[in-house]
Amino acid sequence: MAGKAIPTIPVSENQNLLRKKFYENIAAQSDLMDKLSERLLTLELAIPGLFATVLKLTRGEDATLPINAALNWAFVFWLAALILTLMALTPKKWTVDDTVMKQDPKKFSEGLGIEDYFEQSALYKRRLAVASSILFFAGIFCATLTLG
């Protein structure tokens, strides 16, 4: 039994291509989160200005808007969303052990593996983008309450 050879099949070209695309996808996730954050940043800068413009156009030349809690919350949410988006776009320093491909999650404090770096970087940015989106839309909801 000890001397018996184990039959193997060489890896096909299609399997190599799929494996390569899989790792390219993992590596590109962080870039996708950067692009998403750039779009969010554009919206987060444009919507408050658009809100003020629509307010001016609909209320006339001498229009005033009472400052109430909803208006204050709208701008607080928009500012928080903007800060989270800027954090997602700002590079974060990661400790990576380039001799390890995939680190045990219990040892992340010692350093990430190469694959872990791409996954954790994208996850960090995704969490910030989701939180930013939620806050941003909460700001839009609060802004609609001021128009009543």
Q: Layout of SSEs?
A:
Blueprint: H1 13-59, H2 69-89, H3 114-146
Structural class: mainly alpha
Distance between the termini: 83 Å
Oligomer: single chain
Summed over residues and divided by their number, the pLDDT gives a mean of: 86
Work out the strand percent.
Answer: under 5%
Please mark out the parts with pLDDT under 50 across 5 or more consecutive residues, or reply none: none
User: What is the succession of H and E elements?
Assistant: HHH
| Percent range of helical residues | 55-70%
Compute the number of helices.
3
Q: Which term fits the overall shape?
A: elongated
Radius of gyration: 24 Å
**Main sheet characteristics:** none
Number of domains: 1
Structure summary, number of beta strands: 0
Name some characteristics of this structure:
148 residues, mainly alpha, 3 helices, 68% helix
How would you describe this protein?
The chain has one domain (13-146). It contains 3 helices and no strands. The chain has helices at residues 13-59, 69-89, 114-146. The longest helix is centred in the N-terminal third of the chain and has 47 residues, at 13-59. The termini are far apart.
Summarize the structure.
The protein is mainly α and 148 residues long.
